[in-house]
């Protein structure tokens, strides 16, 4: 788990501690026991306390088959396992917090664990349960966190191929986001992952059918056909399309493709829109009005504050988990606000 957290392969660790990859495999499988010196070297190179290895980790083991990843071809097994290792460790944080405070009960508005067959209908059921009769579905992350779904950003994940992924963890689903993409694209990613959690209780990572269904769910949740169809500008005007996209909290590209799905825009029209967006640089860096930072996960930060007020301060939580305080802060998205000390050599 410590090796996966830093994105290393077994041979990377073996080289760092001057052992063979076979020896590392034997340590990890419990077939042989590393010496105290070897364990200390592992802790040093993987940036964890030696006691990290005494906690029986991972307490919750996730593999690729238990998570919704959009593409298996675009990511390596090492990259996926690094992301999953962060979620495994996050589950330990949640488990510790749950001993001190009561996290929100899981209730996304419709029963989970049932493989819903109609993505559009399921999205409309969620909107009804959330009281969103018409208009944009505001504050997706806040709604999900209030309804017991943990939403987090995975730190230190250097992989452009992963926007987001999700997994249902022992009754506590987690939607993990990266820091990739603009806020509107991230909103679609959150809706997409919620679609997976509702439509696909049994993950099939990389399944094209699952991905299409999750996209249909997200599109209907964020851009309901019954009201968006008549608002799409015809003929196409990029400025008007951008304004409508902003009002619904989606990217202009997502709205253009929605127009195609609803048969308002032809394939050739969408190609022209995409060409314009590419020329403007909006395919990767679409401007966001008023510098909107996007929907930020808050549940874990608030839970940490409440736990601290009830006897479980952040250093104590880090000690229970046998991880360093900086790693814990990074994992739960806390910014280190301490001033940075720099020693400067004086002249002479």
TrEMBL record:
Protein name: HTH cro/C1-type domain-containing protein
Domain HTH cro/C1-type: 2-53
Family classification: Belongs to the short-chain fatty acyl-CoA assimilation regulator (ScfR) family.
Pfam families, per database record: HTH_3 (PF01381), Peptidase_M78 (PF06114)
Source lineage: Bacteria, Bacillati, Actinomycetota, Actinomycetes, Pseudonocardiales
GO molecular function annotation: DNA binding
InterPro entries: Cro/C1-type_HTH, IrrE_HExxH, Lambda_DNA-bd_dom_sf, Rad_response_metalloprotease
């Amino acid at each position: 788990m410590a090796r996966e957290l830093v994105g290393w392969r077994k041979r990377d660790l073996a080289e760092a501690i001057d052992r063979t990859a076979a020896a590392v495999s034997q340590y990890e499988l419990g077939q042989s026991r590393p010496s105290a010196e070897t364990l200390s070297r592992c802790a040093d190179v993987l940036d964890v306390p030696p006691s990290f290895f005494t906690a029986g980790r991972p307490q919750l083991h996730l593999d690729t088959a238990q998570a919704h990843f959009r593409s298996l071809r675009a990511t390596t097994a090492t990259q996926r396992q690094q992301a999953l290792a962060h979620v495994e460790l996050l589950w330990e944080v949640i488990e510790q917090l749950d001993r001190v405070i009561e996290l929100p009960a899981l209730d996304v508005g419709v029963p989970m664990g049932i493989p819903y067959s109609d993505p559009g209908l399921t999205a409309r059921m969620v909107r009804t349960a959330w009281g969103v009769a018409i208009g944009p579905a505001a504050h997706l992350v806040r709604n999900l966190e209030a309804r017991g779904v943990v939403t987090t950003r995975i730190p230190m994940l250097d992989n452009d191929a992963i926007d987001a992924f999700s997994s249902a963890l022992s009754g506590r689903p987690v939607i993990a986001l990266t820091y990739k993409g603009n806020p509107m694209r991230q909103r679609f990613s959150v809706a997409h992952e919620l679609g997976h959690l509702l439509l696909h209780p049994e993950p099939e990572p990389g399944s094209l059918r699952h991905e299409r269904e999750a996209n249909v769910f997200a599109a209907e949740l964020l851009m309901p056909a019954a009201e968006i169809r008549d608002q799409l500008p015809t003929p196409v005007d990029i400025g008007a399309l951008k304004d409508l996209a902003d009002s619904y909290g989606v990217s202009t590209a997502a709205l253009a493709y929605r127009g195609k799905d609803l048969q308002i825009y032809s394939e050739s029209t969408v190609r022209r829109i995409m060409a314009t967006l590419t020329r403007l640089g909006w395919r990767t860096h679409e401007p966001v009005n008023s510098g909107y930072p996007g929907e930020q996960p808050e549940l874990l930060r608030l839970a940490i504050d409440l736990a601290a007020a009830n006897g479980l301060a952040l250093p104590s939580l880090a000690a229970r988990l046998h991880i360093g305080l900086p790693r814990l802060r990074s994992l739960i998205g806390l910014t280190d606000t301490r001033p940075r000390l720099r020693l400067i050599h004086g002249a002479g």
